[in-house]
Amino acid sequence: MPKNKRPLIFSFAIFVISILVFLPSIKNDFVWDDEEVIEKTHFLYKASSIKDIIIPSTAEHKKALYYRPVHYISIVFDNYLWGVRSFGFHLTNILLHALNSLLVFFLFRLVLREYKVSDSEFTPLIGAVLFVLQPIHTESVSWVAGRTDMLSALFFLLAFIFHIKLKKNRLLLPLAGISYFLSLLSKELAIAFPLVVLSFDYLSKNLRRSNILIYFCYLALTILYLYLRGRAYINVPEIEIIAENTDKAGSLFIYLEPARILLNSYFFYIYKLLFPVDLNAFIAAVPKDSFYTLSSLITLVFICSLTFYFGLKKHSLLLFSFLFVLFTLGPSVTVALSGIAATPLAERYLYLPSVGFIIMITYLINKLRYRLSSNVVVIIFTLIALSYLVLCINRQAVWKDSLSLWTDTSSKSYLSPIVHTNYGSALADEGQYEKAIKEFRIALSPELGDSNRGKALSSINLGNVYISLEKYSLAEKWFIRANKFDPSYGRTYYHLGLINFIKAETTSSKKYYKTAEKHLLKTFEYYHSYGIAHLLLSKVYIGQGKIYDAKKQARLALSIGLSADLSQQAEDIIKIDNKRGGKNP
Hints:
By secondary structure, the chain is mainly α.
């Protein structure tokens, strides 16, 4: 093979392998957040809203957690191309992973040469193939909502490549800056980029005064990002353990507990990079047992010792790969501290940090070439690659649909009420109502200690199951119970309105229409833009003979947004002859 054609041929091979490995995912359904965010509310993703997403209006109470405009734009794009077909969304995810795998190949070529480790094209090829096959990436690729990590990694890697090339061409600074900013707009983990490039430049002996302008540009972009995010979103979340124990301020516990969470979180992620087995979509808590903490502490001491050793022996690339993992994991570890997410730990957070880990593996495999025969090195690489491939393909099957996902997850996170609620919903969607009821009741059990909001949601789901079984009195009982669990949860009023509408329709008793109207109007005190509730209120008004009001609510529902079938219902209501009743103003 001609040497000058190797990069092109290897790039093509990496791209094709990436697509083939994750091709099974293309047949997957929408699962988990995909169902709510895309399948049920896809109509809310509009190109006209992109400007407001990028430059959010200042909110009175900055409660929003995520500022990820690029992810929003990607969903708008897919929605425009594919509608609500999961095939297209999964194809985009697969292509994103293929592009990232290509960038890893080109990044490894640059990094290995910069540290004078290898000029061979085969060494970065090995690293790129391992990145393609890493089983820990399955969650990011097979789950549409998980693409935030891939999008951020795409622009992070681009920015890093341009940064390295700045050494020879300073005109690439705008491209490096734009890529970094897009990475920030994809996911907040990109805020680690300045630390990564600083450590890279220092260890590769490229830390010069002339680089100050470059670092200043990155700092300015970081400040701009924090400003935009801070207009309506939380910039620095509270540390949950401190916020919940303000009465213990000054006690040793306040400081030791966050340290334990940090330590155990890092250990969890490092362990998963080394052993990507027994993967779990919903990790409900950071492990707390003493043995785990002791293992974390020993690992920390070991890593510090290795870092010191690599520094003494001038293994700069190994030291950089360690720092890459630690820095890029930093923002994700804060999730465990803040409690802002339902899952304090998540395997998808390892998508970008795995680049540093694979740099390390690639470096070690390259070193083995000088100590062992080529055949032995090939066997070692083949065994790692094949084990990754088998684990990756098997894991994709878990993400095929909601039932397979939550069947697997409930067997691993059986103490999480959220998991049982989601499993129950998946069973209900498949018509397995008795099993669904069992799961919802488990979620509501005092032993699992769910929040009042969580209990309200499980109760609503139970009520919906009983509606499907046409047991309306039981459905109403659970909707009332949901409202008692959390009176501030607007969805409980919607469902109370729904059950009273059903009772009015099935009993011909007009009084239930009035009760339904009361509950639906209460819903709007919590949700100002709830299209399906306005549509239901429209139907309630038809039952009361208020045709004008019904049409008004139907138009309002359409303006907010509805799915295709519900939009048709609203349009049919608007076409109703006014002579059926009602008064115009």
